[in-house]
Structure formats: C-alpha cells, structure tokens
Specification:
Number of strands: 0
Order of helices and strands: HHHHHHHHHHHHHHHHHHHHH
Distance between the termini: 30 Å
Structural class: mainly alpha
Length: 407
C-alpha cells in the first residue's frame, strides 16, 4: 500500500468474498461484553478490603483491557463508516460519544457529592474528594489520581474515574488524527499508529531517566494511550484482508489456547513483578491484544463462555458498574467487614458487592444510560441523513449497549 495515494487500499474496499468478510459482517460481538464483565468484576476485587485475599489477582488490570477494547471498537466502527460513506462525520461521532458517556458520569458525580457532603459516607476522604472535584468536573480525573493533591497519601472515593479522563482525550484527538488528517490513507494511518504505540509505550519507562521526569508520572498520564492504540492497531489490521488472514491463526483452537495462557500468565505475573519491573504492563498489553484478536477471529469454548447470558448481561451494564462499584463495595463490606482475615467472609463481601453494583447499574442503564444513547443515535442520524453512503449510527451504540443480535 502506498501512503501517497489518496484512495483506500483495494483490500479494504473490495466487495469480493475474502477471509475478512464474515468478520466485517458482524454487527455485534457478544463475547466482548463477556470480556467487559470479567474486567469490571476484576476491578471490584482490586478495591475490596482484605487485599491479602485479592492482591494476587491484579483485578485492577481490567482497566487496561477496557482501554484496548475502547481503541478497537471506536476505530473499527469509524473504519466501517469511512468505507461505507467515504468519511467519518466528526459531528455525529462527538454527539454519540457525548450522550453515551457524560450523562451517567455526571449523575454519578452528583450522587458521590451528595454522599460525601450530606452524609458521613467516606467522610475521612472528604478533603481529597473536594480537592479533586474541579478535575472531576472538567474531565481531568487522571491528574488527582496521579498526583496527591492534598498530600495525605490517600485517594478520593471517585479516583477510579481516572481512566475516563484518558479515554475522553482519546475520543477528542484520535478521530481527527486518524480520520481527518489520515483520511483515506490506510498505509500512513497504520504506520502512524505503530509509531504512536511505540512512543506512548516508552512512557512507562521514561521516568527512569530522570527523577524530574518521573515526578510527572508519565506512566499514568501518558502510557495508557499505548493500550488504547493497541486496540486501534488491531482494528485496522482486522479490516485488512491480508492481515486478517494472518491473525486468523489466533482464532484456531491452538492459537486461542496460547493467547489465553499468555494473558493469564501476564495477569498473574503482575503482582509479584510490578514492584521491581513495572514494564510488565507492556507484555500484558501484547497478551491482551492477542486475546482480543483470538476472540474476534475464532469460535470455540472461550467464545461460548464469554457469550453466555449472565456474562453478556453484566458486560452490558459494565459502564455503570465501573462508576458505582464503590457503593456496592460499601454495602458488601458493611455486611461482611474487611479485616477479619476470613477467606469466606471476603468472598461473600465480593459477591454482595457485585450484586449490589449490578443492581444499581441496571436500574441506571434503563432509566438514564440507554435513553441518552437513543437520543444520541437519533441526533446523529439527523446529522447523517441524506449524506452519500449514509450508515445508520445505531451500529456504534448497539455495539456499546449490546442490543443488536449477531449478524
């Protein structure tokens, strides 16, 4: 492919049957909801008390998987819109993203404010929450997460929202870079993505060069973009017939088994290695990307497990669970307090916390999240209506909300 050409590569536009056709024909992949379910449950374990029970799981790495999935899904959908109508409508994209993300987020922030200032819930962390509040309001959540804005060595009860600040900046910049500046230049876009992956991956280690650089926490402020970019890269490769055929090897029984084992090994290696080798997150990113590729290109026991109804149900409300799991944990640990050293009590606290979190997230999905998603879809459709190659924008939100059946 020649990056000087203003036309897309033939294998990305061809209507002839090819190895990527079945993949491109899928409008919804329920297995990815199953992945979301495992990730958000892992995040809950990371924030429970009695970390001597849960620490080895490194459940907080679920956020890293969410980053890869975000990069993949947004880029995949944008590529398909570009292929169908010639370009990505930035206006329609931002409308969909805004109404998908902001309403539930700001409702969560209002609820946390009510709990922090009107009750005794989390009162010992109130100074941290107050200091971080301007950053939460302006979607700069990663700043108070990286820097101790109060100096007490404590995190705000809403600090888990840091990853949303990273993703929002990705939503703002990536569509402009990839689908305006690099529009209809697939080879340049692919190479540029690789360069960005390398650049942002280096941010995990750049702090070792100088304490003054380390003081800016590049591994928190910048490195996560490499995880998102891995997903962006995967989306581009899977839309290409040649690369899709190569990656199909990961979808075989042997390929999927290797991908699963590599992912599990990286997951379990994180807790013991991270204190001395923080670059462990780099092979973890590679293993995550390989596993997602295996899930997307194969169909075996792993995929069947991930698309079971309970897994898909939890995955569909995972955004609300991520925002509100602190409340679920509070409920779980009120009934089964941490600090007892009991494995059974810790597991029961996790189960109760998960059930309460799922219940809260489901109610809010029905009453808040999905109505705003539908509003964003209708608004986006009005923007796109009548344009050449119009693609119904419900595809993006259907993938996000999990409402469409498999094609």
């Amino acid at each position: 492919m020649d990056h000087r050409s203003r036309n897309p590569a033939p294998d990305l536009r061809s209507t002839a049957a090819g190895p990527a056709d079945a993949y491109r024909g899928r409008t919804y992949v329920p297995e990815l909801d199953g992945v979301r379910a495992l990730c958000v449950l892992g995040v809950i374990t990371a924030h429970l008390g009695d970390q001597h029970v849960w620490h080895w799981l490194s459940g907080g790495l679920g956020v890293n998987v969410f980053f890869v999935l975000s990069g993949y899904l947004i880029t995949m959908l944008a590529l398909r819109e570009e292929r169908a109508r010639g370009s990505l409508s930035l206006k329609a994209f931002y409308v969909r993203r805004t109404l998908r993300i902001f309403p539930l987020y700001y409702l969560a922030l209002v609820i946390y404010c009510g709990l922090m200032y009107a009750t005794n819930w989390g009162s010992q962390l109130r100074p941290n929450f107050t200091a971080a509040l301007p950053y939460y309001l302006t979607y700069m959540q990663e700043v108070p997460f990286a820097f101790d804005v109060v100096g007490q060595g404590l995190k705000s009860p809403f600090s888990h929202s840091w990853s949303l600040g990273i993703e929002e900046k990705y939503y703002l910049v990536w569509p402009v870079l990839a689908f305006v500046l690099w529009a209809r230049l697939p080879a340049l876009r692919l190479r540029g993505t690789v360069v960005l992956v390398v650049l942002f991956t280096a941010m995990q280690s750049v702090g070792r060069l100088d304490p003054r650089i380390a003081a800016w926490w590049p591994e928190i402020i910048l490195f996560p973009y490499s995880l998102i970019l891995w997903g962006c890269l995967l989306a581009q490769l899977l839309e290409d017939d040649t690369w899709h055929k190569r990656l199909n090897m990961l979808g075989t029984k042997v390929g999927t088994a290797i991908a699963v084992l590599a992912f599990v090994a990286a997951q379990l290696a994180f807790a013991p290695l991270n204190p001395v080798f923080r670059e462990i997150v780099i092979p973890y990113a590679l293993a995550t990307t390989a596993l997602v590729a295996a899930i997307l290109t194969g169909d075996g026991p792993v995929q069947r497990l991930l698309r079971t109804r309970p897994a898909v149900f939890v995955g569909r409300v995972s955004y609300g669970m991520y925002l509100f799991h602190g409340l679920g944990i509070s409920a779980g640990q009120k009934v089964f307090p941490s600090g007892s050293g009991s494995l059974v009590r810790s597991i029961l606290a996790f189960v109760l916390a998960s059930l309460v979190t799922i219940g809260i997230a489901y109610v809010l999905a029905v009453t808040v999240e999905r109505p705003f998603i539908r509003l964003g879809r209708r608004w986006s459709d009005r923007i796109l209506k009548g344009k050449p190659g119009h693609v119904h924008s419900s595809l993006e939100e259907a993938v996000a909300a999990g409402r469409m059946r498999r094609a």
